[in-house]
Specification:
- The chain is α/β, with parallel strands linked by helices.
- Helices cover about 50% and strands about 20% of the residues.
- It is built from 7 helices and 6 strands; from the N terminus they run H-E-H-E-H-E-H-E-E-H-H-E-H.
- Strands 1, 2, 3, 4, 5 and 6 form a 6-stranded mixed beta sheet that branches.
- Helix 4 (about 80-85) links the parallel strand 3 (about 70-80) and strand 4 (about 90-95).
- Helix 2 packs parallel to helix 3 (about 50-65) and helix 5 (about 110-135) packs across helix 6.
- The chain is globular.
């Protein structure tokens, strides 16, 4: 079973609600099985940056707690799903799977000053995500940003491995 093998399947968009069961189950495994390998299978169209970073940070915590974390992309790791793929010690991608990298998508409303503040926050979030991607890949932050500038950058499994966004 998934519990016996410490394999969690995340087939969903990334939202505050969708990560709650992930955090609960991974937290349980962290307490019950200290230092044991954990696998997370991801098929996600992406979603909320902040929710995704919460799950990403928790996966990093598991690694820091001594778990070897393997992330396996099947289908797609799009947007925040691609960031989650970067959280593993080992990052695997199915031969037919795809990774999507793009700038942060968001909206704002209110007075001009509030909208300016929101845009600055969106830019800071994109900078954070580009750093995560560059750190785990063979590309610089500038190269990641250039390749995804105003563009949905879809990578095949082979391209994801070649650029260092997946290991195998």
């Amino acid at each position: 079973s998934a519990d016996e093998n410490l394999t969690y399947t995340f087939y969903d968009g990334v939202t505050d609600e969708s990560i709650k069961p992930s955090l609960a189950k991974l937290g349980e495994w962290n307490r019950r099985f200290p230092g044991k390998p954990i696998t997370v299978i991801v098929n996600s169209p992406g979603g909320s940056v902040l929710a995704g970073l919460a799950l990403y940070d928790y996966l990093q915590k598991l690694r820091g707690d001594g778990h070897h974390v393997t992330i396996i992309c099947v289908g797609m790791a799009a947007s925040m799903g691609g960031i989650l793929l970067q959280a593993g010690d080992k990052r695997l991608i199915g031969v037919s799977s795809r990774v999507l990298i793009h700038e942060v998508s968001a909206g704002t409303s209110g007075n001009v000053q509030k909208m300016d503040d929101d845009v600055e926050n969106f830019k800071a979030n994109w900078d954070k995500l580009a750093h995560i991607l560059a750190f785990r890949s063979f590309l610089t932050v500038a190269e990641v940003k250039r390749k995804a500038y105003r563009f949905d950058w879809w990578l095949t499994a082979k391209e994801a491995v070649a650029d260092g966004f997946a290991d195998e």
